[in-house]
Amino acid sequence: MKIKYCIFCLVILFLMPATASGQTVSKSTADDQTAIEVTVYNNNLGLIKDTRKVKIPYGKGELRFMDVASHIMPVTVHAKSLNYPKDFTVLEQNYEYDLMNADKLLDKYVGKKIKIINWNKFQDRKDTVEATLLSNNRGQIYKINDEIYLGHPGIKVLPEIPGNLIAKPTLTWLYKNRRKDAHNLEVSYLTGNISWKADYVVVLNEDDTSSDISGWVTLDNKSGATYKNASLKLVAGEVHRAERRRKDRLYAMEAMKMAAAPQFEERAFFEYHIYDLQRKTTVKDKQTKQVNLLDAGNVKIQKELAVYGIKSYFTRRYMKENPRQPVNVYIKFKNSKGNNLGMPLPAGIMRLYKKDDDESLQFIGEDRVEHTPKDEEIRLKIGEAFDVVAERIQTDYKRITSKLYESEWEITLRNHKEKDITVGIVEPLSGNWEVISKSHPYRKVDAYTIRFDVEVPRDKEVKVKYRLRAGL
Fold first, then answer.
1. Neighbouring-strand partners of residue 37
2. How many helices and strands in the chain, by DSSP H and E?
3. First-residue to last-residue Cα distance in the chain
4. Quick count: other Cβ atoms within 10 Å of Cβ 393?
5. For residues 26 and 22, what is the distance between their CA atoms, to the nearest angstrom?
6. DSSP conformation letters of 377-431
7. H or E segment at 275?
8. How much is the pLDDT for 101?
9. Is 80 helix (H, G, I), strand (E, B) or coil?
10. How far apart are the C-alpha atoms of 149 and 143, rounded to whole Å?
11. How far is CA 110 from each of CA 39, 167, 299, 390, rounded to the nearest angstrom?
12. Which residues of the chain have pLDDT under 70?
C-alpha cells in the first residue's frame, strides 16, 4: 500500500503544472468571476474591479490571472483577498503581453526541428518531411536532408507551444498563500481605450417657449476585454492625470423614445459627479453602447437673437464692402428643479429638433455644453436667422490720441418675419470707454461689454445709432 501511495503522489506531482523553478502554476479566467465593476471617466480611462473566486495551492506559487484588458496599465494593478486579506500576498507581478501568432511561434523554433505536411495530389496522400528552421526573417529558410530550402509548401507542425508565449494578455503573480480555502480575489486596475460621452435630444414646441429633453450616455469600449454582467459607473468631471513622457502601452437610438424611469442614479463624489447605472449590463469589447440618462418634459426655454461686434472695431477705421453681419440664434434655459431638470448634466452635444407643418421632426442645430451643475443656465448657439438682417456701418472715426479713438456707428436691423422680435446688439470694448450719444438705451453687461436690446416690429426696419470713445 505504501508503494502504491508513493507512486500515486509521484504521478500527481508529475501531472501538476509548474514553473521553471518548480513552483505550482495556477490559472484564473473570466469563468471564475463573481463580480465585475467598471467605472469610466471622460478622458479615455476606465477603472476595472474584477472579483474572482480562486483556489490556489498552499505556500508559494505562480497565478496567471487571465482575461484582463489588453490596454491595462500594469503599474496600477492592485490585488487583495477579500475574505482572507492577511493570508494572500503578491511577491512579484509580471504583465505578459507577448501574444502568440504564427510568426512568433516560428521565431521560437529557429534552430530547431519541425514537421512540414504537404498534400501530394499526384499520389493522393500526405507527405511529411522533417526540417530544421534556420531563419524566419521575411520568409522561412529550412534545412532538409542537407539541402537549403527558401520556403517550403505545406502545413508547419510544431511539437508544442513554447511556455513563454500566451494567447491573451495575462497578469502573472508570484504569490505566498497561507490558506487552503478559496480566496475571493479583488483585482483592480486602470485601462485605456474606454470612454463615454453624453448626447442630448431637445425637441422644441411650436412657439419655441418649451422643450422636451432626453439625455443619452454613449459608452465606447476598445480596451480589449469584455465585462459581463458588470456594475457600471460613469464619472463626469476633469480628472487630472500626471503628464507622461511616453505612451502606455448595437449602437441603437430611437430619437425621442422616452424611458419609463431614470436608469442612472446621480450623486456628488469628491469634486466630480458619479452616474450609477441601476442595473447590470454587459459591455463587450469593440462595442458602442447607449443607455438613457434622463428625460425631462416641458422645460421652459427662451430664444435669443444676437449680433456681436469685435473689440478692434472701435480703435480703427471700419471699412467693409458688405456691411451685413450674422444674426445668431440661441436657445437658453435653466437647469433647475423648478424647470423640470436640476440634475448635474455631464458635458456633451445637445441636438435640437422641431416639428414642421407636416408634424415631421426636423433637425435645427446643435451645440456643445460643458459640465453644468444644477441651477446654472445653459445657452446653446443653434445657427443664424434667415429672415432677420443686420448691417453695420461706421459713420465717423477720429483718432484723438495715440491710444484714444472716437467712432460713430449705425446698425440697421430688418425683420422679415411675421411677428415682432427683439435683437440684442452686443459690443465688446477695451480700455477706458464712454458712450457719448445713443439712439436707444443700453445696459452694461460687465466692465468691457455693453448691450442694446432692440425691438423690431414685423416687416419693419430699425436703426441703432451711437457714438463711442474707447482706448487701447
1. 49, 231
2. 2, 33
3. 104
4. 14
5. 13
6. EEEEEEEE-SSEEEEEEEEEEEEEETTEEEEEEEEEEEE-SSS-EEEEEEEE--S
7. strand 272-277
8. 66
9. strand
10. 6
11. 44, 20, 71, 77
12. 1-23, 97-101, 163-167, 243-262
Residue in this structure with the C-alpha cell 428643479, named with its chain if needed? 337
pLDDT at residue 39, as a whole number: 94
By C-alpha distance, which of 79, 75, 86, 46 is closest to 64? 79
Q: What pLDDT is attached to residue 96?
A: 72
Nearest to 33 by CA among 75, 65, 70: 65
Q: What's the rounded Cα separation, in Å, for the pair 394 and 396?
A: 6
| Lookup: cell for 468 | 463711442
| Residues 308, 426 contacting (CB under 8 angstroms) | yes
Name the nearest CA neighbour of 222 among 334, 69, 326, 89.
Answer: 69
Backbone angles phi, psi at 312, to 5 degrees: -65, -15
Residue the block writes with cell 513552483 = 23
pLDDT at 11: 35
User: Which of left, alpha, beta for 4 (phi over 0: left; psi -120 to 50: alpha)?
Assistant: alpha
Q: How far apart are CA 77 and CA 95, in angstroms?
A: 10
Q: Would you state the cell numbers that stand for residue 15, as one nine-digit string?
A: 501531472
Q: What pLDDT, on the 0 to 100 scale, is given for residue 262?
A: 60
Quick one: pLDDT at residue 320? 79
Distance from C-alpha of 156 to C-alpha of 266, rounded to nearest angstrom:
57
Domain boundaries, the chain: 2-99+166-191, 102-157, 302-471
CA dist 169 and 223 (Å) reads: 12
359-363-367-370 Cα dihedral, nearest 10 degrees:
60
**376 phi/psi in degrees, rounded to 5:** -105, 155
C-alpha–C-alpha distance, residues 268 and 275, integer Å: 9
Cell of 409: 456707428
Sign of CA pseudo-dihedral 150, 153, 157, 162? positive
Q: Any idea which residue has 445657427 for its cell?
A: 383
Q: What are the angstrom distances between the C-alpha of 413 and each of 305, 326, 329, 444? A: 11, 11, 15, 21
